[in-house]
């Protein structure tokens, strides 16, 4: 039985009127209506289960929202000081609270809650070391009436003493693995680690960060300072407000008297400075201090976007004039005589050709050269062609599709229009771009999705290409257009730089793509005074982002395999972009090695049909093998020198097992360069809250060319509301759920694996059901995959328990029950038999569901549609129960011979040992089974 300890929690703030004892009222006045709890003495680098009862008003109107209330969590060290984490598994990065979990509205709970007007909220969150305490805030969000909170319980599995903070995270003394922290933290030593930033003449560079002290109180760090001029020559000290010593030269002392210290460095550039180098180090070898990265950087309040924009500024040119005033830019004498626009001195055709931008190259790699425009019609996101109007309102939404709106508002399609003279070519593309800018004032967009960072980043790159078309023109009309486009690009530079430097989206694909767009701006307009600053923060954020998203072994915390490939593709584009640049040499080398390792994993996951399994967010309309072919031929030829990658790309025939524990993926395949291939892929990686799917131990299965068991897929850009909630929920995946409990955040790990009698067996342990359950899922797969078996083993608190398993089928697969012990899947002339098998406990029957949608919180029997939304499909549900321990599963086979072989394997001592209940597999037995 799992050992669970209760963690103490004490309410701190007074809740709203009506609170009494253990019941706390949260009003609906605004998002500052809340109840705050102090949670003391949690274990670091361990999962924590948080649960409470929520009761809502009988006439609550916001019943169907997925973010009815918010639970904010702040992480504190032993001495109570706040610790900054860019990413915490199980939570979303937010601004009011450091991290949050959103509580769904009343429509998403069991039907019995309609009568009680209450439900139990339960979720897991990873507590990263060196956290010892939590501040937990339950906050009003979208609720229309007050709600009450009661029965708060915080629980963790009983842990061995935590590892020494100086030791790398990866496993605990009790042998249980923990997620790779994916922290881009620097462990400081007596040799400085350097960062380089561009500076703005006459304005301070402000750098904010945090130091974590794992050593004795009073230890501190140093930030060594070197200013350089445009030729790279060091400017001699003294520097304003900077100390100096014979040993370190100019430096700033950062004492750390507590376990964590937030610091702000305000550096005033001397005359002639264009860059500053910051070298962080400690002064003693015994000091154990870490620098939390990425850092935040800004260039003073006067150059903040919100402080430049104002009611008195008319359009983008007015904005640039205000920037020039604050940068004290002096026009060249000849420009003053001609009364030239100040932007003209920064536009040089040599800098604008050839451009290196990312969205257009990435799109070409992903989808080939298929144009977005044909016959005067616009085709985006695989939806029906839409006739281009003569005049745009910029609020168009013909398909009620967020994905279409995002791509439309990004203006990416203007590049195709510019290449079509018969449709107006560059002139019409420019007119449309300027129409968009005029119709969308900075603070009043016609479509709010146009301010989404990815849409802004893409639109910025489109404007750069349109600017390049006008760079050499002497035509008066073109000159005015050029000036307006340039000024708009400058405005975007300010916006993008603030988005990425605040780390709001770190680590994520959004952060990477936004930083890439800022890098493209800085390279295209190097004469602009802030170009070097923008380039420096873009490179700093890209380095930190890739370090967090791709490990040295190529593994990734990103659940979506589609997004993993997009991250790798962006990285390969980036390595070509910065090739030959001295200030990015070490970054390029580090990135190349990680991308090479990541490509091996991606290729190993790809099925013989050329597709990545639809696990996590999986947009339709992509052929991943073609994507990989275009990517490597265009940007990764040098990687083919790696023998392991070359072998993986050759796609060896025959039976094969591929496992990447860091990625949480195990693959079995049987391939002979014929259409009748077989494939199984199971996912057991870290479960994320933001844009994540609760699918730990889910799998897809193809037998002899027929795709049988699938994942519903879907994408955050295509699906919203209850559809999105369903697609990410655990019930949308082929998993098992104990006592009606959905998966929450957590992860899985390989407990044991072996090969036996032309079969592969893998046992995966998980903690996604919280500390009250031990769980393991085992896959038994014949080499040819004609038959597989999937078993789940649960151990609870000793009380009776049951679990439901689900198998989700492709849309074109029919499923029928022929008896209580046999279900059959039909696809054309092919048949798939499913036979339940119990090891411990009792088998309690099966059911088939198709398109059940009577309640938002219990949708079942759907797969995602290529154009957004859902389509009905069959789901087979099976149930087992018992007292304390339950183990059972399903044998899936296309042949009688395969079924008999699986039954023979289940009778062997080796497989019986692997099917023992969670917690009973001794370390020695695991070692014997590992190969």
By DSSP, the count of extended strands is 40
* Relative strand content: 25-35%
Question: Strand count, sense and closure of the main sheet?
Answer: 10 strands, antiparallel
What's the total helix number?
A: 20
Estimated structural class: alpha+beta
**Alpha-carbon distance between the termini?**
29 Å
**Helical content (DSSP H or I, runs of 4+):** 25-40%
Mean pLDDT equals 90
Radius of gyration, in angstroms, nearest whole number:
29 Å
Quaternary structure classification: single chain
Query: What low-confidence regions span 5 or more consecutive residues with pLDDT below 50?
Result: 160-175, 922-931
The dominant shape is globular
Structural features, described:
With 931 residues, the protein is α+β, with helices and mostly antiparallel strands. 25% of the residues lie in helices and 30% in strands. The chain is built from 20 helices and 40 strands. The strands form eight sheets. Strands 29, 30, 31, 32, 33, 34, 35, 36, 37 and 40 form a ten-stranded antiparallel beta sheet that branches. Strands 2-4-10-6-8-7 form a six-stranded antiparallel beta sheet, with no helix packed on it. Strands 1, 3, 5, 9 and 11 form a five-stranded antiparallel beta sheet that branches. Strand 25 (665-671) and strand 26 form a beta hairpin. Helix 13 (561-577) runs antiparallel to helix 14 (585-605). The longest helix is centred in the middle third of the chain and has 26 residues, at 476-501. It is globular. The model is unreliable at 160-175 and 922-931 (pLDDT under 50).
